[in-house]
Amino acid sequence: MAPNAASCDLSIIIVSWNVLPLLRDCLISIQRAAHADGTQPLDSQGPLALGPDNDRATLEVIVVDNGSTDGTPERLAEEFPWVRVIANRDNRGFTRANNQGFAQSTGRFVYFLNPDTQLQTGADGSSGLYTLYAAVRDNPGVAMAGPLLRYGDGSIQASRRCFPTPLTGFFESTWLARAWPDNPWARNFHYSDWPVEYRHPVDWVVGAAMLCRREALEQVSDSPAGQPRSAPFDEGFFMYSEETDLARRLSNAGWRTLFVPESVVTDFEGRSSDQAVAARHIHFNTSKVRYWRKWFGRGWSEALRTYLLAEYRFQIAEEQVKRFLGSQPALRAQRIAVYRDVLRSRLK
Q: Measuring CA to CA, which of 33, 77, 121, 264 is 20 to 30 A from 146?
């Protein structure tokens, strides 16, 4: 069977890097979501199935491990024999590892899920995973859907987005955004005026949890001539902005994205990237600049890159003043080192 020939209904792909405790909790939540109707015990080692008896969907779980040093592949083999593990020797990044998992998956639908998430059941005890799956399956024009994301403390995470405009990059996740938090570019970007309780179309959803239609992903994928289409993510993005880029390509091909708040996922957000603070800053902003170059042109991307680097120079000066005044000198030194790493990267 070709790697992309569909043989199950839903593939769940998780890219992991040194977050074994969180990954274990994520996999346990998948078991619970799959068996929410009580048809199988949680310790079943047979194929996972999803949904009511008259509408059962088969599913597979693939973990792509990016060279973890915490024993992830070995522990998964012992504790979760129903999980297929792809063990990389090094950290290949979020996009490349997800493309690996996609190439080896067999589902007609594919759920890209972060390892620091947990799937929740509905208020009536139903499976939120099944709700999200059915939302895509039952709407032929929908290529992607995202659940309502909540932080670990239960508060709602802003996880639905409009496509950015050229000015959005200057007024979202920047100092200008903090100085003017209610600016129109950020409000539009976050659907701030739209109620969060209702299902509705959106431009894109945060990549922590995205359930997609394989047919649509293959339509916009890159692949060598004559080979199965197996790379939905643009690997030029190591991590960050890749889901925005994918959703934009899907939209340009005529597909829609849906926000499904009846399905809830708890997102403990960024635990893998927290292990490399400087790298997180660099990847986030480099990907942002790359997205601007790809979709808005070199002029806008260079203007954004120049502005972001200026922010880091100003932050270094601010931290130096605070250190001189005796405010948490160790913390100030650490931040200065991180910001200097960003400047050395030139966000390229």
A: 77
